[in-house]
Specification:
Elements lengths: L1 E6 L8 H14 L4 E7 L6 H6 L3 E5 L24 H12 L4 E7 L5 H7 L3 E7 L11 E4 L4 H6 L9 E4 L8 H7 L11 E5 L6 H14 L5 E6 L4 H10 L6 E5 L5 H6 L2 E4 L4 H7 L4 E5 L2 H12 L4 E5 L5 H13 L4 H10 L4 H9 L7 E5 L5 H8 L16 H12 L5 E8 L4 E10 L2 E8 L6 H18 L4 E3 L18 H5 L5 E5 L10 H10 L3 E5 L8 E6 L8 H4 L2 E8 L7 E2 L2 H7 L4 E8 L9 E8 L6 H22 L16 E2 L19 H6 L7 E4 L4 E4 L12
Parallel strand pairs: 1-2, 1-4, 2-3, 4-5, 5-6, 6-7, 8-9, 8-11, 9-10, 11-12, 12-13, 17-18, 19-20, 19-21, 21-22, 23-26
Antiparallel strand pairs: 14-15, 15-16, 16-17, 18-20, 22-24, 24-25, 27-28
Helix pairs in contact: 1-14, 3-4, 7-12, 10-13, 17-19, 19-22
Length: 726
């Protein structure tokens, strides 16, 4: 993937925006992405630092910004751009036009939907990192890593409906070292001995001077102070060193790659209210905050209200006396253990991994399903945007967050009739809720999914994960309501029922019958997803007696002969048989043919009749086996071919009935294999018996051999060799 960042840094802007983008870029690079930056050459920028970290940077010249070139609305931070947004859009487009960009990530207070719309043609998807909630965006993914509740509702009117929104320090873009230290650093429980002073990358000479003076006035030889400055403070640093000459407990640091080691040692911090707040929280460091910009005030107020930090005020309100009193109070009443623990609960420092996992979501992503819990309420609210939680949410109920939460909780409290599964990515990002409801003797399913991948295969995996988990724990009749053609190309897309399906002549009622322990069950969710997405209602059972009336019934890997009275419940009953009928009727035909040395296995779709495998044929295909294919390999090929035959039949129904032809020739029969058929002959070589090893099941009927005193089980697994280097 090619990912481009549009971000600036300067003495005015500070370094926080560039640093968090750099952190995300490193995380993405670790997953194989190619990351590039577009940065303007402001005074005090970090372009050389970004290049030193191994990233390509497109430099934009520092222009002459004029409000006359702008249009309404005028953004509060428009002066940060150093150019009109129109010229910036043209320059940025020129910088990336040569490469197909998968993601354009924008972290800039001076850019809004106008700029983003201009850049849309140059990228597949766009992400915005924001903290202000003060302007409209045109993006697929918005991240606000701050702890400001009001921003959540504010963004509803500022981004598209299908935009994924992630909020809070859980997704904070912190350097990896913070995640590594989070679980190792104990909460602060002793008296204050070491203080860390850092106000970010801007010019904050007055605050640093005031803090140094306040610290010296404490006149405490048992306290030490670490002061961190950046390059643009070099001359000021020399001035400060001269001011505190003779005080051996004040240490100056410059251009540190990370504050984490000093934070780990510190007992208290004095700093700004920006992104560094989450670094301090991650390591459980209590802090005194002085806000330096308007957007930091809400962050500081929230931290102060929650007892996670003490906000001393804004930079134009704070003086040496206020800092001195705050330091004295913190030292005299040092009981920071509870505060430290609460800080560490806010973020674990793994936000960059979580965000990069969102950007990397694709058909190959691994997903997992678990039963939902009451702690998942926030995801429910986010997924449904304070609208219908499920298809039968009471129409007369006020669609408030409280109403949706209560509705969700009521269903969790009724586990006999409701099974709700949350499906997440490998990194824990929730992707969807799948609900099973028991009613009238059968389970019904509906679902809501948010996906940022444009590959519908990922949507399938979400449904399949929940279905497989459900089937492990529940039996009985499982039905699926027709959801019509669902567009899974955007986050938050609602999967409401298509009213037209209720009366559509093309809608079919399809049943699937399999053994409860059959190997084919792992593939049934994929088939069901295809069928219900095509507008059909489906039922899945493990006992033929449970079949209801319908149009089509597919009997797959079912070990019993289905009698005529049950077959009559459907217009057509179809079976998949892995043989070239009429040859090879009976049981386990693919296994027998592999034992016979066959390299191609015929797969036949036929009508089920009371006589074993004797019905007319509708379609056939063949699978080609590799010599190294073990049972899981060739079963997967058989399942994929079977599903393709079924999907083709349903897609062309009823015209597919015209392809019916009777079986011709003399039939042959295979007998049912038993566990003892997996016995290895100790007098023959493994090479001579390798086909037997290819068809044994390591768990149900493993290969074994016998001696006079004991039986020995053999399990076979394949480990492909890496290609040899030439």
């Amino acid at each position: 993937m090619i990912i481009v960042f549009r971000v600036d840094s300067s003495a005015l802007i500070g370094t926080g925006h560039a640093m968090r983008c750099l952190t995300l870029a490193k995380s993405l690079r670790g997953q194989g992405c190619s990351c590039k930056f577009i940065c303007r050459e402001h005074e005090g920028n970090l372009i050389n630092e970004i290049i030193a970290d191994g990233f390509e940077v497109f430099r934009l010249p520092n222009g002459l910004y004029s409000e006359d070139e702008d249009e309404t609305p005028l953004l509060e931070h428009r002066g940060w751009l150093g150019e009109s947004w129109q010229n910036d859009a043209v320059q940025s487009a020129e910088a990336i036009s040569s490469d197909p960009v998968d993601w354009l990530i924008v972290d800039h207070y001076a850019l809004d939907c106008r700029w983003e719309q201009k850049l849309r043609p140059y990228t597949k998807r766009m992400m915005v990192i924001d903290d202000l909630a003060d302007r409209v965006h045109e993006c697929d993914f918005l991240l606000d890593q701050n702890l400001i509740e009001k921003n959540k509702s504010s963004y509803q009117k500022l981004v598209p409906n299908d935009c994924l929104k992630l909020f809070g320090p859980k997704y904070g873009l912190l350097q990896p070292i913070y995640g590594e230290l989070h679980s190792r650093i104990p909460p602060r429980c002793s008296s204050i001995k070491r203080i860390l002073l850092y106000f970010g990358g801007g010019d904050h000479a007055k605050l640093i001077t005031a803090t140094l003076s306040a610290f010296q006035r404490l006149n405490r030889n048992d306290l030490s102070l670490d002061v961190v400055t950046n390059d643009n403070n070099s001359s000021f640093k020399r001035e400060c060193e001269a001011r505190v000459a003779g005080n051996p407990n004040i240490y100056f640091h410059q251009n540190l790659p990370s504050l984490a080691p000093l934070m780990a040692k510190a007992d208290l911090a004095i700093g700004a209210g920006g992104a560094t707040s989450w670094e301090r929280c991650c390591l459980g460091l209590p802090s005194l905050i002085i806000t330096l910009a308007e957007n930091q005030k809400d962050i500081a107020a929230n931290l102060n209200q929650l007892g996670l930090a003490q906000w001393l005020g804004h930079l134009d309100e704070v003086n040496e006396e206020i800092i001195l009193n705050a330091l004295q109070q913190a030292i005299d009443h040092a009981n920071h253990q509870n505060c430290s623990r609460q800080c560490m609960a806010i973020t674990d420092g793994l936000g960059a991994k979580r965000v990069s996992s969102v950007l990397m979501l694709n058909a190959a992503s691994q997903v997992g399903a678990r039963l939902a819990a009451f702690q998942d309420k926030e995801f429910v609210l986010d997924l449904f945007d304070h609208q219908h939680a499920f298809s039968n949410f009471p129409e007369d109920e006020k669609k408030s967050a409280e109403a949706i939460s209560n509705f969700f909780y009521l269903q969790l409290r009724d586990p006999e009739n409701f099974k709700i599964y949350l499906v997440s990515s490998e990194q824990g990002l929730p992707l969807g809720l799948i609900r099973f409801q028991y009613s009238s003797g059968k389970w019904q399913m509906d679902y809501q999914i948010r996906l940022i991948s444009q590959d519908i295969t990922l949507a399938k995996k979400v449904i399949e994960a929940a279905l497989n988990e459900f089937r492990k724990q529940n039996s009985g009749i499982l039905t699926f309501c027709s959801l019509g053609k669902v567009d899974f190309h955007h986050w938050g897309q609602k999967t409401e029922k298509n009213p037209a399906c209720e009366s559509s002549e093309s809608k079919l009622h399809i049943s699937i019958c399999t053994d409860s322990q059959s190997w084919i069950n792992q593939s049934i969710p994929s088939l069901l997803f295809h069928l219900i997405s095509s507008g059909h209602d489906c039922t899945w059972v493990h006992q033929a007696e449970e079949l209801r009336e319908g149009d089509l019934c597919f009997i797959l890997s079912y070990s019993k002969i289905v009698p005529s009275d049950i077959l009559s419940r459907h217009k057509n009953n179809l079976v998949i048989h892995a043989s070239d009928l009429p040859k090879g009727r009976g049981w386990s035909p693919a296994t027998w043919m592999i034992l016979e040395g066959e390299k191609k296995i015929p797969v036949t779709l036929l009508e089920a009749v009371p006589e074993l495998d004797a019905g007319p044929i509708y379609n056939q295909a063949k699978i080609e086996l590799d010599e190294e294919d073990l049972i899981d390999d060739w079963r997967q090929k058989l399942a994929e071919t079977s599903l393709r035959l079924i999907e083709d039949f349903v897609g062309n129904y009823p015209s597919s009935l015209d392809c019916k032809r009777d079986q011709k020739g003399e039939p042959s029969f295979y007998s049912n294999r038993q566990a003892e058929d997996s016995e290895i002959d100790v007098n023959l070589s493994l090479k001579d018996q390798f086909n037997l090893l290819r068809v044994v099941d390591n768990y149900k009927y493993p290969a074994f051999f016998r001696t006079a005193n004991a039986d020995f089980t053999i399990r076979i697994n394949k480990h492909p060799r890496s290609a040899k280097k030439t």
